[in-house]
Amino acid sequence: MNQKLFFSGLIVMFALSAAGHYFHFGNTLQFIISAIAIIFVAGFLGKATESVAHYAGQRLGGFLNATFGNAAELIIAIFLIRARQFEMVKASLTGAIIGNLLLVLGLSVLLGGLKYKEQRFNNRLAEHNATLMIMAVIGLFVPAVFVVSERFTFDQDQFLSLAVAGILIVSYILWLVFSMITHKDMLADEVMTADHGEAPAWSKGKSIIYLVVATVMVAFVSEWLVHTLDAFSEQFGLSELFIGAFVIAIVGNAAEHSAAVLLAMKNKIGAAVEIAIGSSLQIALFVAPVLILVSAMFGNTMDIVFTPIELTAIGVSVFIAKSVSRDGQTNWYEGVLLLMVYVILGIAFYLV
Amino acid sequence: MNQKLFFSGLIVMFALSAAGHYFHFGNTLQFIISAIAIIFVAGFLGKATESVAHYAGQRLGGFLNATFGNAAELIIAIFLIRARQFEMVKASLTGAIIGNLLLVLGLSVLLGGLKYKEQRFNNRLAEHNATLMIMAVIGLFVPAVFVVSERFTFDQDQFLSLAVAGILIVSYILWLVFSMITHKDMLADEVMTADHGEAPAWSKGKSIIYLVVATVMVAFVSEWLVHTLDAFSEQFGLSELFIGAFVIAIVGNAAEHSAAVLLAMKNKIGAAVEIAIGSSLQIALFVAPVLILVSAMFGNTMDIVFTPIELTAIGVSVFIAKSVSRDGQTNWYEGVLLLMVYVILGIAFYLV
Amino acid sequence: MNQKLFFSGLIVMFALSAAGHYFHFGNTLQFIISAIAIIFVAGFLGKATESVAHYAGQRLGGFLNATFGNAAELIIAIFLIRARQFEMVKASLTGAIIGNLLLVLGLSVLLGGLKYKEQRFNNRLAEHNATLMIMAVIGLFVPAVFVVSERFTFDQDQFLSLAVAGILIVSYILWLVFSMITHKDMLADEVMTADHGEAPAWSKGKSIIYLVVATVMVAFVSEWLVHTLDAFSEQFGLSELFIGAFVIAIVGNAAEHSAAVLLAMKNKIGAAVEIAIGSSLQIALFVAPVLILVSAMFGNTMDIVFTPIELTAIGVSVFIAKSVSRDGQTNWYEGVLLLMVYVILGIAFYLV
């Protein structure tokens, strides 16, 4: 998108969203405006992060991208946690994971596959990602089984949640050490430091200022959006689960999603796969456990126990994404399968 | 089998089965006669389909084989649906899937492996089939989890079942487009259009007439067989589940089963694997959802919710079949493992 | 370890353990002494088995190693069965499986990986092992699903358990036939007959005598250890599950564990992987079903129904071990992931 146009849209939507909040527009209108504003401010934050990462050099830059790539998602979730909307936080985490693995990966593979008969990428990385995805699923799955089938007390539940959160974060940090320090040369260039589309041509100073401004903007719009959710969900008879898993997850990741699809259509399917799978790994191994710790600091620990249908959604997404990406080749039909699974889950969550 | 002998057997068993039905033979006798008759008429239908497919040219022929390869199974199930034996329909679908993945594949791999130390086949196709199998499992698994753990109402259950059925059929049709049109050249010749044994040397006109006659014969014998099931299951204390999953599934697929085993023993293990896995995919992605739609047309929608033990049976079969076929090599011991799992499931279903 | 030192330790700990038992030391002291004694006597039994196997020739030797490699584990479990501690038996089997797949494999991969950037091994064997591990999981998983969701009676439960135990043992015997007779040449030398470290330089006669003596010593110390368990678990507020799965499993396999880690550090990662995965397969496909049959001979059949959390622990261990070993390459980070899953399970079991 043209940069001037983007900034105009960004400022207009931010202002409209602020106006909606302070002048009490109707709930639905407020929700729609804030949702569109989130797409813009999250996109802005993503671009600013990339630009700062660009100046920070390969290693630190890779780290920044890996850590703050889902900053918008994280900020929205923190406001949800402050509002004690724990169920919606977990639904939005679920939605972000399946959105990346099914919608983003599916669209990338489908649209890339319609243009190129077969697209190939380094499946050495896919192997590593597969093991990490299994780790992520285990980290979310084990607490649910133990807490439910052993009828854990509140304290046991909290302790296990904090412990698992800590272990997942340590695993994530060690993964950064592995992929950026000890075994950097063995993984494709695509990893982490991937060129996620055209980097904006901002100066170093400007990039840093933009990063700060974007973060603040995301924080404001997130709060305004969170305020509208209850009324909106009531008005349209939508469950918290559906809003969290499909609405919030999609608007919070829209910018990243479009980047992946555009890369796939330029035959850079490896980078698209890396964005989609890397982002979902980041959510499961870093964002989710950080939110557990943040909630504990707020004095009211959110547990890491996802519901059976959330775990099912995550589990089936990981399985089919793993199966599609395993051989380092993609075609349009694999994109169709990913999207079909997304539609099935969407209908099922809508009916809940 | 000698063709003359086959036709004699076909006519004799059909006549005996009709006599049994109209002159009210004992229930057990009627059941046994109809079961043997089904093996003959289903075999006849299979041969007629292949012969028509042969004249229809490669593309349309492949489509016919892919769509009507399980026609006998489909017709039997339609009569079960008309009799509102929904549980038995689902049990017979389960049985057809696990019968193909464990019994047919297991016998083919074992007997082929006893003759040839190692058999190899194109595992490019196995990769694709693996992803489709995962799609099939997801399609059957997701509704069960949502309906049970979210306590869906009857209406929600029906809506989800119809929606998932529609999505599975669309996936199946797009798979035909992929494998027969857009990526035909990339998959092995074995796919779909596989030479499933010696094609009968019938003229074009004869083939079409035979197809019509065979379909009518299957329909009649299916009805006669369905009539005997209640009394038979009561007399021998067998559960509907066991009869559906092991008896009906085996007699309905016997002809196809023997074709696969014979191919494996001629060292055409790839074709045998394709029959076994392709047939189970067809059941899960095409026959099962078509039956949901057929039941809706009869005014009494059968839902797509399988029981935990049926899903377990399907899930474990897919996992072990995927593991065995993944590397494009088979040996006798892998056949043993598949058959052992079949025996475990058989005993467990028998005890229910 | 220096052999003289080892024998001194062995005799001292055995004597102390006997003294503790007969002169009624405090429970905790008795427990600690017996636990250390088990490490020594189990190590002695392992060495004696290997030495006898060495003289028995490759085929019979491989069979001995494969069958009696977990003899110490088996003997401890038999004493637990005599004491009707069925829950602790199943917990210790679970612990032995996950201990091998996560702790032993994890430490081997991590420590080997810290020394060598990347370690490689024959992944032909890994493929076979993966299929066998899936078979093992199915054998333990199917009875649990059927018994629980179909509310099997006591008799149905017993019948299914004995049948599945028989099938698993037959599968295991046929695996020995496959890997040692019919397809011996196709699998790596690492299989079964692997050189598990430096073989002790004992004469043939001495080896046999040592084997008998070691077996008797394990039997005695096992009984003394089992006697202390109730009091010990009560005193420290540890569940039977935790003691079985983590304490007994670790002390019973300590010698084998250290052998695997030492091999990995000598860059023989293939042999280390084979010990870890081969040992867990032996537990699941041979030791567990033999214990079912042994309990039946004692007149009180232990069923093969594991709890949901035990099955979860086994299932996730198999999945991540399969994912790590699948590509025939390992690095330190994969070791970290295995150990992290072990820690998560350890905490969860501790909290139960």
UniProtKB/TrEMBL annotation, chains A, B, C:
Membrane topology per record: Multi-pass membrane protein
Where in this chain does the record put each Sodium/calcium exchanger membrane region domain? Answer: 28-180, 207-345
Which PANTHER family does the UniProt record give?
Answer: VACUOLAR CALCIUM ION TRANSPORTER
Lineage: superkingdom: Bacteria
Q: Which Gene3D superfamilies match?
A: NCX, central ion-binding region (1.20.1420.30)
Instruction: Give the similarity note.
Output: Belongs to the Ca(2+):cation antiporter (CaCA) (TC 2.A.19) family.
The biological process GO terms on file are: intracellular calcium ion homeostasis
In which broad location class does this protein mainly occur, judging by the first location in its UniProt entry? membrane
Q: Which InterPro entries match?
A: CaH_exchang (IPR004713), CAX-like (IPR004798), NaCa_Exmemb (IPR004837), NCX_ion-bd_dom_sf (IPR044880)
Annotated protein name in UniProt:
Ca(2+)/H(+) antiporter
Q: Which UniProt keywords apply?
A: Antiport, Calcium, Calcium transport, Ion transport, Membrane, Transmembrane, Transmembrane helix, Transport
Q: Is Transmembrane among this UniProt entry's keywords?
A: yes
Q: Where are the transmembrane segments?
A: 29-48, 60-81, 93-114, 126-147, 159-178, 208-229, 241-263, 275-298, 304-321, 333-351
Q: What does this protein do?
A: Ca(+)/H(+) antiporter that extrudes calcium in exchange for external protons.
